[in-house]
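Researcher: Quick sanity check before group meeting.
Model: Go ahead. Protein one:
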Amino acid sequence: MEIRTEETIMSPQQIQIADFTYELPDEKIAKYPLGNREESKLLVYKNNEIIERGFQNLPEEIPEGTTMVFNNTKVIQARLIFHKETGARVEIFCLEPLNPADYNLAFQAKGVCFWKCIIGNLRKWKTGILKMSFMCEGKEEFLCAEHIENLDGAHEIQFTWENKELSFSEVLELTGKIPIPPYLNRDTENSDLVRYQTVYSKYEGSVAAPTAGLHFTDSVFSRLDEKGVNRAELTLHVGAGTFKPVKVEQIGDHEMHTEHIQVNIESLEKIINAENNIIAVGTTSVRTLESLYWMGVKLLSGKDNPYLLEQWDAYALDGSYSRNEAFQAIVDFMKRENLSLFNAATQIIIAPGYNFKIISGLVTNFHQPKSTLLLLISALIGNKWHEIYNYALNNNFRFLSYGDSSLLMKS
């Protein structure tokens, strides 16, 4: 697929990341959330115009009959701080389960499980088992970590604990810390346990929040319901790769991280039956919806492994199928295989030149310079992103995870 710019014709792989940057002063980055989630500012871009609202006014901006899609993943307390007998601090950051590999089974595991992790201060942990004490119902318990093997930039870690009544999910709640974004340059605080989760989070697995959803409250949902806005949920577990900077000049040389998807038939059918606009809440919801379309195409085309969408697949597959055909293919597949959930993984990169198949709009925060998320925004609204971000910078909008919000309708 090719895209035309003002100067030349190029493929998405040839896009220069230097064209997707802007000056972001540190004082524009929101270090803490506002006291009330829905009191954040809302920049609305539609019909080629920018207007400024409050997030509590979002229901007024969403047309009746719209289907909004939410990522209901839940952030886990993925940071585990161990101290060796020497006093050396070693941090283990849980990325994704290895055995059991299924997220639900991994969090239900009793006594032992294996995870893919990042290790901080690894040079201080050459050998031996790390041990951390914690209290559970007035009794001292211990969590142990043993290094099993290196895994291409990460590590396989075996976690064990003696109390077989405790699941790994409960162990993490008693020992771990919420992994707030590194650019906040502060330690996790108790308030982050609540505020770095959406009010609709359900399924554990993310190491970063789908931050566009942090603004929603029960009050906003009530007004959306009154407006006749439909809602669907799906799950994409956000990986640490969401913060991975683009360090190459051309996008084609950047390797996208893999993230895991779960969706049930009910949600798929809500998308199939959507009569009007589909608006995604957050870039993770966009990535999930668009990935599911292409996975349906793989099923329709007889391609191998519909459970995985690689980075550039969407630019090579046959995009002539309708939204309903693609999503119905997944529903039919699930029924044939007697699946209650469609579990898959995506590496999709959405960059200028991408042809959106599902969404017509997006609720999202303001993203880092030179990020793949900024490429996604540009794919949706074109070069207008420059004007939108300049407006936000010049009108006291707060940026990044705990910052303000925007509603962007496809150009």
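Researcher: Fine. The other one?
Model: Protein two, sequence then structure:
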Amino acid sequence: MFFDIGAGEILGLAILGMILVGPERLPKIAVEAAQWVKKARGLATKATAELRENLGPGFEDLQPKDLNPRTFVKKQIADLMDEETPKPKVKKPAAMIDPDLL
């Protein structure tokens, strides 16, 4: 469900809303709240699209969660770890047999 809210919580919020606002004004307030949510989603979508456009090529897969500093650092470290860097080969010395033991 939305924000991990179950049916019991929604029912409790509806009852609390009827008590605080009143049953006659509750539908109007619910419609206004839905309009605000729709408007906020539209603004967020538009801002993300403008950001992608202004950043230019290479940022087509940009997500808003990528702008979080923690996520950004984790992604950069993961990219660095995925790159194959040539590791110096360590040559092991051949086993030597002591001639006195023979």
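Researcher: One line on it for the slide.
Model: Residues 2-81 form one domain.
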